[in-house]
Amino acid sequence: MAVYLCHEQPDLYEFEAEVVEARPGAVLLSRSAFHPGGGGQVADIGVIEHRGGTVRVDGVSVEEGRHWHLLDDPTALLEGAVAVTVDREHRHRVAQLHTGTHLLNALVFERFSGALVTGAQIGSDGTARMDFDLPEVANDELRSLEPALNDLIRAGLEVRAVYVPASEAVTTPGLVRSLSVAPPPTPDGMLRVIDVAGVDRQACGGTHLTNTAQSAPLALTKVENKGRRNRRVRLRLLSDQPA
Known about the structure:
alpha+beta; six-stranded antiparallel β-barrel; four-stranded antiparallel sheet
């Protein structure tokens, strides 16, 4: 699990950098506060101001451990010093959804005997989905979790990131909730854990709120069967809270 600048400075939305390497439509920067995506979460977006004008960053491609910022102009070739802005509204929308999926995950894990996640996707359009290993659970039972989910949002619970030894994943039930994939440790053997006070504690490398009340309410728009064991829950933000 990499430790990103956006983990260390989550409020850093504007910064200066140098172009380290460039190719048409993509650039490597000397420093970046963009979250590159991963684990079902989309990457940050934003803009780069350079000596030739301004280009949008539409995503990040991680190639051999290097983070290429993908530009909306496929012919743009950047060089020198640049000023970078991360799209605050996009980051906040994704953080609301990602924090909300942790709350939903906590409810499912508690109510359905530690059911694990089999897949997740958090989009830029205010929607997300989570897949759970729940072969015996009726779809209506999952739909009924919406009021409890929004109660947790309104409760104003503190959300914080901490680092724990990776060995805790073996001894702490529920610290890793994926059925098939465990997040890798940092180079020094630690796991980044998102702790929602009194409700949820699990390894995660994504972007999150600092308090659940910073989120808009969530609707569980659809629950469907995906294969014999999987139940897919689709979520939608009912409105965006200001960042």
